[in-house]
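Hi all, long-time lurker, first post. I run a small reading group and we've been trying to get comfortable going from sequence to structure in the token notation. Rather than ask abstract questions, I figured I'd post a concrete chain and ask someone more experienced to write out its structure so we can walk through it together at our next meeting. Sequence below, copied exactly:
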Amino acid sequence: MQSKLLRGTFILTFGTILSKILGLIYVIPFFQIVGREGTVLYQYSYVPYTIFISVATAGIPLAVSKFISKYNALEEFAVGRKLFKSGLLVMLTTGVISFLIMYFAAPVFAEMSTNKDANIKDVTTVMRAVSFALIIVPFMSLIRGFFQGHQSMGPTAVSQVVEQIVRIAFLLIGAYAVLKIFKGDIVTAASVATFAAFVGAIGGLLVLFWYWYKRKPYLDELLRKDKGTVEISLKEIYKEILLYSAPFVLVGIANPLFQAVDQITFSKAMAEIGIQAKVADSYFSILNFESHKIVIIPMSLATAFSLTLVPSITQAFVAGDRKSLNHQLNQTFQVLLYLTLPASIGLSLLAEPVYTAFYQHDLIGAEVLRAYAPVAILFSLFSVTAAILQGINEQRFTILSLLVGLLIKLSLNIPLIKMMETKGAVLATTLGYAAAILINLLVIKSFAHYPFRLVLRRSLLIVIFVGFMWAGTGIVYKLLLLFLSPESKIESVILIGLSASVGAAIYFYLGLKSGLARKLFGDRVDRLLRKLQIFGRRRASEN
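-- Answer (accepted) --
Happy to help. Here is the structure in token form:
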């Protein structure tokens, strides 16, 4: 049973990571096809869509899987099936309502997003194109949760990957066909690109239907073994589901809400200091689409990691095992900082070639990415501290911390943009997230009685290691600039590869020599070293 659970968790984690990688890589060809004008329209529509979809589905698969797993363990299989049947209708209704709200409110969202009258109609068209996905995705999320509740992670993982592949293929082929083959306009191309979310969702749903067809005999067999001793009303079922999923909804929409503040205020603030609407739109795309897509790479690790924390932290907290709880929290914070700090600092240092490799050579884009990259540390910390709050059953404070963070972002965004342009929006996001994280940390200290002394000492050590890494990477990067140019895509990739390899080697060596890497990752480090030695011997024998 334990091995099956671990195998399922690995499959789901692998599927999620692969889906995220695909969701990152597609921006490279997409930008080349539609350019900045296309990404502006795409991003204007995707931020409200992300908020709608997060509210409609975030936490539902996990909440449903937890509920079904709980009653399956009691051999009350009919309770889970009851939730599934009624839930399909509820989620379909939720999806249709979300679609109708977004579709008909699109002109209002468009007017809030841009200060250019000519743009409102275009943004409305693109927003309406993406809204169709809202009909299917909530419905699909419930089916994924049902399978996960039966310890079957394959359907969710495969459907996620298929959904992403179908979406990206339709997005790229559709946008290319509109602009290059049919000689259409950029609004139509952006609309096709956002409508791809609906097409991708159909692909993911078909995979789930296939799994349902294959697994139905087994699921019906379980139903025949039902004890039938538990009677629970639909009202009680949905109350339990909503209580569990609410914190995930908040964590899921935190980032889109901060982006939404930029979307509403950015163009207007830039217009007030005399920046032309077209230039403001270009800067908005650099901030909210191009740079953001790269910055969330380190954050993705933390998000996937944070979802695995809740059960072990909850178990230690409920059992009153203070030693185990402190150990879990120590490991969590240290691993988070050990992974995200060097990644975000390295990204900031190599901002110019990274931006060129992904999009095009743009000094303004590189400057924004350089300022924005370290904020990934805060994105990760918020995600993980929110997960810890749920683990210690104090998730209500997540609402408080998020609201405080958003209030700071909303209050400071326009004044800071007027003072510092795009970097002002980055600073407002930094201050908002920092305040939210501080509240979460104070709650953890207060309710879990957690001492931060060890983490603070280790954090200082990690910062020193990152300093050496930064110096080594910087020296190599400066030397390579004598021969290579960050204005070329191919040369940028070489610059990134060589500089990052040196930085990673320095960081890994220091972690190994200090013993920190082994304390955090245990025998995984030794296994990695053995593989590297075997690989090195093979290469030597080949030569």
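A couple of things your group might point at:
Residues 252-522 form one domain.
Residues 359 and 416 are 27 Å apart (CA to CA).
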